Amino acid sequence: MAARTIVITGASDGIGASAARTLAKAGERVVVVGRSAEKTRAVAQEAGADYFVSDFADLSQVRALAAQLREKYPRIDVLANNAGGIMGKRELTVDGHEKTFQVNHLAPFLLTTELMDVLTASNATVINTSSAANAFGYVDINDLDAAGKYSINKAYGTSKLENILFTTELHHRYNAAGISTAAFHPGGVATNFAAESSSWFRFAYKTFIKRFMLTPEQGADTLVWLATTKPGQDWVSGAYYAKRALAKANKQAYDAELARQLWDRSEALVSTDKLNQRS
User: Fold this and answer.
1) Are 73 and 120 spatial neighbours (Cβ–Cβ below 8 Å)?
2) 156 is catalytic
């Protein structure tokens, strides 16, 4: 059987890098995407994988990444939207969006939708890295950029809730066209994902608590499981998982109308940004 093509974003470190190594060793054709050219190249060389560099705080780079992937890979079997993290004080990107919202939700939404024809033709699996932190998120559909009230941890939790809502709506809109999708919580993993933040997460990761956290390999387990098993047989498309099992999410995660609205608003935002970029 020919190797499948698996694209993993946020793969220059942590669970993304671990998943890339594991899947490459299993004989898959892995494509790693990261923000740091040096770190992404190092992971790619170790895994024998292709790599691309893209900063999700700039949507023009996300569009360029999608174009590069479309040109090089006529088939993409798995897209793992794993890039993201906890940010610091409220900051707007070059596109005018709150950074947590853009990097953790809007950019992966854009990448996925830009690749949709390839993904549907490939009967692809789309995996979205969420977090149990979705529990303390709250999606205000009229203030997605948190202009009214902002806190670092709430912004992160909200973005992880948005990852789940995106997953459920992606299933609703495209499962019949061939897409299978799941969101998952990797667990408390000892990585650098909070390095840019002033959140208590960052400081916890530098204390003795780190000893009790999962290794990146352990955190990547559910991602690898979702990428290598059969949707509809081993797991349910459109659902949220933790430790290879269905998990309970924030009550907003089950609001079908909110999921639809978030998709429509996200689509409008990336379309507006594209028009502004041309003008």
Assistant:
1) no
2) yes
Query: Within a 10 A sphere around the Cβ of 185, how many other Cβ atoms?
Result: 22
Q: Residue 138 has what pLDDT?
A: 98
Q: Pick the catalytic residue: 51, 73, 138, 156? A: 156
Residue 208 tokens, joined: 């003795």
Residue with tokens 């379309």: 271
Of the two residues 176 and 205, the one the predictor is more confident about is: 176
Task: Show Cβ contacts of residue 69 under 8 Å, excluding neighbours closer than 6 positions.
Answer: 7, 31, 52, 76, 115, 118
Quick one: pLDDT at residue 217?
Answer: 85
234: number of Cβ within 10 Å: 11
**Distances from the Cα of 224 to the Cαs of 55, 170, 171, 257, 265, in angstroms?**
24, 20, 20, 31, 31
Task: Name the pTM for this structure.
Answer: 0.91
Query: Which pLDDT belongs to residue 190?
Result: 54
Contact in structure between 159 and 214 (CB atoms under 8 Å): no
Q: Tell me, letter by letter, the H, E, C secondary structure of the chain.
A: CCCCEEEECCCCCHHHHHHHHHHHHCCCEEEEEECCHHHHHHHHHHHCCEEEECCCCCHHHHHHHHHHHHHHCCCCCEEEECCCCCCCCCCECCCCCEHHHHHHHHHHHHHHHHCHHHHHHCCCEEEEECCHHHHHCCCCCCCCCCCCCCCHHHHHHHHHHHHHHHHHHHHHHHCCCCCEEEEEECCCECCCCCCCCCCHHHHHCCCHHHHHCECHHHHCHHHHHHHHCCECCCECCCEEEECCEECCCCHHHHCHHHHHHHHHHHHHHHHHHHHHHHC
Q: Please report the pLDDT score of residue 227 as a whole number.
A: 98
List, for residues 205-222, the tens digit of each pLDDT value. 455 444 545 686 888 999
